[in-house]
Amino acid sequence: MDYQHLAELLFPHVKETPEDIEKKYPKRNLPEGAKVTRFAPSPTGFVHFGGLFPTRVGERLAHQSGGVFYLRIEDTDAKREVAGAKDGLIRTLSHYGIEFDEGAVIGGDKGDYGPYMQSKRADIYHVFAKQLVSEGKAYPCFTTEEELKELEKVDKKAEIKTKDWHETEDYREIQQTWRNFTMEEVEAHLQAGHPFVLRMLAEGDPDKKFKITDLIKGDLELPENDKDEVLLKSDGIPTYHFAHAVDDHLMGTTHVIRGEEWLPSLPRHIMLFHYLGFKAPKYMHIAQLMNIDENGAKKKLSKRDKGTNLDDYERQGYAPEAVNEYIMTLLNSNYEEWHTANPDKSFEEFPFNIKKMSTSGCLLDFGKLTDVSKNVLSRFSVDKIYTDTVDWAVKYDPDFAACLSADPDYTKRIFAIGRGGKKPRKDLALFSDVKGYAGFFFDPYFAVVDPIDEKFSRADVVKTLDAFLASYSYADDMNTWFDKIKTIATELGYATDMKAYKANPTAFPGSVADISGFIRVAVTGKQNSPDLYTVMQILGETKVRERIAKMKETL
Ligand code: GLU
Which one, 4, 270, 476, 539, has least CB within 10 Å? Predict the structure, then answer.
């Protein structure tokens, strides 16, 4: 077979050679050991929470080594593409502090190794496709997609899953017929305007294994590839496999970090790199994120599960810092230890280590995420928690945002409660928790949500409120303020000595804690609140008196 002639027949429009293309993609000038990594999503909708894993690993490895981290949009499947998804994913990732050194950006590209959208690279793929054909390593297959589907249906009837179809004798037989074409047949098809797909001619023997080291999974032995994978679809657009080899070579990727679902395709990819004369990159296949199903068993996080869409985390009010922190705890087993020793350092200072990555699926644990979030938010400065909460509320709870920002100093005093010091309060896991925690500081959100327990006499409650109003002075310091509450307790026969009360609770109608509880409910609407004295200092005398008086009316 004259492969050169075949290549001309199939790609008459291609005039450039691989050497011409290579010249446009010179070797990157980077320091020794610098890693070039990429995030290569298909813009098929939202960013999956699990997508943050390989992305963060790529970002860390590149930036830790003085390398390059870039974004390539794998939009070769027009059927699955969702309009606006590319810009959406750039925005989402940027919310999590993931910025690319080069690659696709909103409205275009930045960098010298583009275009970074695969749909704009068809000409490049064709040059390499032509090369493969001219060397007898790829061939046209004129089977139409319909025919292919029919064949698959026949096998489905025979109860063979499509996935396994490629392993069957039938498939091998069909592959043989595809391979046995003549130049005359190709010419006739082309003349008749029949579309074709381009397949690689796989010369592997699946009974033989080859060795490869995955930087996460370790040393692997994989079967050689004998599947004539489609490289170009009938519209001339490449498949993932072909585009991966061409792009990662030209763009100088040193480490391919991707989901482990791609591991079965690795033999094909290695073969392709070899056919094309490219050095294969290093691979890291990351285990998929796991979830707990209704029976308590671990299962892969599916698209329908709660917590899949990364944008939902923002909507719910998770701080991006908290999500990042949580991802780090999942990614590197020693991260938490490091973080405890270095509480004030950013995760970017952590020496991220591939060897400390989990080889099996990490579990998405919302309880843990909440704990991490509480810690992260508790360490925010007053200004930061104020600004970030307001920014969040402007987007997702504008009425509350208006309340929060009406008097910034007032709101900041609220956020200052229990903040700073060695053991800050950990009341907030989400920006959306602020309303439940501190909404009562704002009249539109004040309501008595936890009424005073029925077991206390209403007369005692009224007496407490009256006595408090009579003795309250805004200028009192905390001790004087509390002494006054103690006096009220004593007058009503409530215990002020908590030890005595605990030893004999039935001897008293209640304790001083219950007395301040009555006042607390009147002032905050809740049984639990931040320190009541501080709350009153922030609310101011007028509001305190107003609320207590109002409470009395309802009793
Ligand atoms: N486009 C592929 C995906 O969406 C990328 C896999 C890779 O990173 O190579 O999964």
Answer: 4
